[in-house]
Amino acid sequence: SFLEGFEDSAEGAVATAVYEGTRPLLLEIQALTGPSGIGFARRTGIGIDSGRLNMIIAVLERKAGISLLSRDVYVNVVGGLKPEGTSTDLAAALAIWSAEKGVSIPHGTLIIGEIGLTGDLRPVMHAEKLCREAARMGFSRILLPKRSLGRVKDMPAGLELVGVTTLREAMEASQQLHK
What we know:
- The chain is an alpha/beta fold.
- It has a single domain (about 15-175), classed as Ribosomal Protein S5, domain 2.
- Helices cover about 25% and strands about 25% of the residues.
- The protein has a 4-stranded mixed sheet.
C-alpha cells in the first residue's frame, strides 16, 4: 500500500484513491505552503501534472477564497506515483487548503473528486470500486462528489459517505467532521 506510515491527521496530508489499469489504488497527497521570498510564488508538483496543479490553485483562490498569490505551494504524491485522471483533484485541493489554514483532515477519511473551473465537483469514474477498496483498507469515511453517490451502492456497514457539490462545501464539510 502507498499509505504505509500515513498520518491522516497531519496538516497538509490527505488520503485519496485512483483507478489504475484494472484496480483501485489508495495513495497519499501531501502539500506544504509558505511565504514566497523571491518576488513570485513557486508552484511545484511531484507526481501531479503542473497544469492541473495550477488550475486547482486558481480555483482555490477564485472560488474558495484562499489567497495563495504570494505563497509558495508544494504538492507531492507520496511513493513517486503519477496517478492518471482527475479523481485526485479534490484531495490535492484539500491538502493545499489544510496546509495553508493549519486544519487537518480527520482520521479515517479518504477524499476523491474532480474539480471543475467553477469550483463544482464532478462525478468520479469507478467511485464504487474506490469506496469498496477504501473500506477494505480501514477507512470509515469518504468525502466525494454528491453526483457520485448514486453510483455507490451496497457499501459495507460503518462506512460513511459524505457527498459535497462544491470545493467550498468540501472545505466546510472537512471542518464539520471534526465536531
